[in-house]
Structure formats: structure tokens, C-alpha cells
Amino acid sequence: MSIYDLIIRNGYVVFPDEVKKADLAIRDGVIVKVGDHLDGKANEEYEADGQHIFPGMIDVHVHFSEPGRAHWEGFETGSQMMAAGGCTTYFDMPLNGIPSTIDRKALLEKGKIGEMKSVIDFGLWGGLVPGNIDELEDLAKSGVIGFKAFLSATGNEEFERADDFTLLHGMKKIAELGKVLALHAESDPITQWFKQDKEKNGLFSANDYAATRPVQAEAEAVGRAITYAELTGCPLHFVHISSSLAIGKIESAKQKGLDVTVETCPHYLLFNQDDLIEKGAVAKCAPPLRGREEQERLITCLMEEKFDMISSDHSPCPYELKDPAIHNIFEAWGGISGGQFSLMSMIELAVLHDIPLHKVAMWTASAPAKRFGLSSRKGQIKHGMDADLAIVSLNGTHEVSETNFFAKHKQSVYMGHTFPCQITATINRGKIVYQTDVISEWERGEWLKVIDSGIAVNN
């Protein structure tokens, strides 16, 4: 009789190409057996009868602000929130901490904090900013997931946008290092030109803000970055793409054979500009929520598999920076707080649009793992993989409230939204880190360092 640490029984397992009832046996944090009615003893059994077992979400785009701005969101509350949403791995972006993650010293400092505080596994992005080209190699050798740059103003004085020369030099170097460059693609000249005009005329409404960041600003920046990628050979990953016009340019680049991937976020698929008008600052992000017709086009792009993956772009801030009383919406922080809700959002869209659940698993787990060097251990439910799992009831519902939202600040465009599903448990490398509104206080995640396109073995 085999001895396992954990057996999960009678769940509907979401495999890469089908959903099938099966048991999972886990030992030393790894799935060691998958099958019907598994024999053997385990230290613990979990009855998942009637529930679906997804691979734990890999969210490649979150903004935790530690060190320096942990009062915005730190590794402790941020990782707990992600775990409550069925996420078992996240990648933290480089810009909102102080210092920003633009050299090896800052990377190691942030990684150490994450190892002490995060309840689930994590990776770290490095930054590409003016003046740090010589730091990129050390960052790559230290295991960053890839590099992040902005083509428009960041809103953060510690992390400057990349001008065209920085972008070209940086892309050439990143290509040599075998890494990926993630881009916030909005044209700074276009967005600043519109913003200055609105401010000159005293126009500060939600609609005015949206008008300063039109789809053309996104598409222009995407097209320019693709041109630079052709010249430098740099792999690109476009973050939070919000328009079909930009997707068209990315599709053309893929057809040419360029190494390009793209994500969108659940808030662009579930919400639109009407929500920005109604809710104000809490719904402000960049790019902005689009009109209803553009939202519908984005959903069509998703169903046609033109998006490679889904990420949250969780970007929280203290209450006063999203205060509903702010008259000038340009002064409010531009970010959506909602990392807890990405997997449930995608299940909602699957239910609404008859999308197979294995496609949800692809967008939220296997595609991110493959793109960013984690696929040897993560992203799928199969023998030999890390036991990273999200157990989901499709019979229950989840209404977002301040009591069940685990982020530090309880402001979100999702507040009051009801999902047609419920995360009942999250398992990270075989350990239950979340179960029915309770977070484990003792489990700690692993810093996943990616070197030579694979997870480095920790010493």
C-alpha cells in the first residue's frame, strides 16, 4: 500500500484537453499518481466530489509595492489575496517598490522579503529604464522572469518610461540574454497631448480621462514595439491589451513568425466605460476600460484564442488615492485592485459564452508556464508536476464583499459582483494554503528563479 501526503478524491480534473473525474495522489509537493479510485493510504484526504480541480493560476502581472510601499500592498496580504482566488504562482512587477527592481541589489532585497512573507510561489520581473542597460545581465543571471518597460508615463518617479533609444538598446541586450520584454504599450506623445488639452480646458471627467488614452495610442505603441522587435530579435510580451486594433497588429506579427505573446485582464472583459463613469476612480486604469462595443470585440478575440493568457494587473493603492470625492480623475491612482478574482472571472466568461473549461486552464496556467520557463513543474495537472491546484465549486456563488476580499485595501471595481462559482481550496505544492475563507498562516512560497529558460534549483 502506497503512503501519500494527500489524496484528493472524486474531483472533476481540468486536464489540457478535457475535464475528467479522477483522484490525485500527492507526495513531497508533487503529483505522483492520477487515476480512478486510487488505492493507498494518505496522511490526509480531501473529498472534492462534484467540484472542479483546475491547475493553480499563474498570474504573470501583479503589483505588490514592497519594499517601500507595503502600506499599498505587500507580499503578505497580496499573496493571501491571490491564494484566496486559486492562484498558486504570481510574478511581481518591478516599478511600485522603493527601490524599483532595476538592479541586482534591489532584486535580492525584494526576493528575500517575498520568501519570508509570501504564502504561495512567486517570480520577480526586472525593470528596463533609462540608464540601467548595464544592470540587465546581472538581473538575468539572478533569475528574473523577464523585463518590464513602459512606453508611456508610469505615474511613478522611481521608474521612468523607456524612450526609444533605451528601448532599442534594451531590446538588443534582452534578446542576447534570452529573456522576454513585457511592455505597457501606450504612446506617451499621444496620451500626453490629449491630457494637456483636457487640463487646459478644465475637463476632468471619467469620459475625458478615457478620451486621452484612445485605442490608437495603444495600437501605435504596439506597432512601434513590434518594429523594434523585428530589428533586435527581442521576444515581446504585451501586457493588459485592451483593443482589437492592437490585437490585429499582434496577430500580424505572430503570422510573420515574431516571438510575441499577449495578455488581457478580466476587468476589460467584464466591465466597460459605463462602469468607469458610474464608479469613478475605483474603476480607473491604464489603458482605460473601453466602450461596450470594444468590450464585446475583446471577448470575441478571447474566444478566437487571440489572447495567449490572462493576468490580473492587480494594482492597488491606499484609499485616499481612489477617494470617490476626487474631482479631477486624472489625479486618482490608475490601477484595478482585483487579483483575487481572475480565475473566477474566466470561469464566469466560460459559463456565459460556452467556453470549454480546459481553455480557462490554458489561459490561466499552462500558457503562462510555457511562455516564462515554468512548464517543467507548473501549469498542468499530471504526474511529476507540482501539486498546484485550485478546487472550485460551480454550484456555489461568490459575492465580493469587504469581508471576503483579502487585499489590504477593500476598494475594487469588483465589489458587489457575484461570480457563478466559488474557490473552496487552493493547494500550493501539496499544502492547503486556503480553504473556505481561511488562509494558512504557516505555509511559505518559493521564489522561482528562471535561468536559461527554466526554473533554477535553489541551493
Automatic annotation (TrEMBL):
A single GO molecular function term of this UniProt record: cobalt ion binding
Subunit structure: Homotetramer.
Residues that hold Zn(2+) 1 according to the record: 61, 63, 148, 313
Zinc keyword on record: yes
Keyword Metal-binding carried by entry: yes
Entries under NCBIfam families matching the protein: allantoinase, PRK06189.1
Example GO BP: purine nucleobase catabolic process
UniProt function note: Catalyzes the conversion of allantoin (5-ureidohydantoin) to allantoic acid by hydrolytic cleavage of the five-member hydantoin ring.
Superkingdom as given in the UniProt entry: Bacteria
Residues engaged in binding Zn(2+) 2: 148, 184, 240
Name of the protein in its database record: Allantoinase
Binding note for cofactor: Binds 2 Zn(2+) ions per subunit.
Family assignment from sequence similarity: Belongs to the metallo-dependent hydrolases superfamily. Allantoinase family.
Entry cofactors: Zn(2+)
Cellular component per GO, a single term: cytoplasm
Pathway: Nitrogen metabolism; (S)-allantoin degradation; allantoate from (S)-allantoin: step 1/1
Residue list for modification N6-carboxylysine: 148
Catalyzed reaction equations: (S)-allantoin + H2O = allantoate + H(+)
EC number from the UniProt entry: 3.5.2.5
Modification note: Carboxylation allows a single lysine to coordinate two zinc ions.
One Pfam family it belongs to: Amidohydro_1
Keywords: Hydrolase, Metal-binding, Purine metabolism, Zinc
Domain Amidohydrolase-related: 53-433
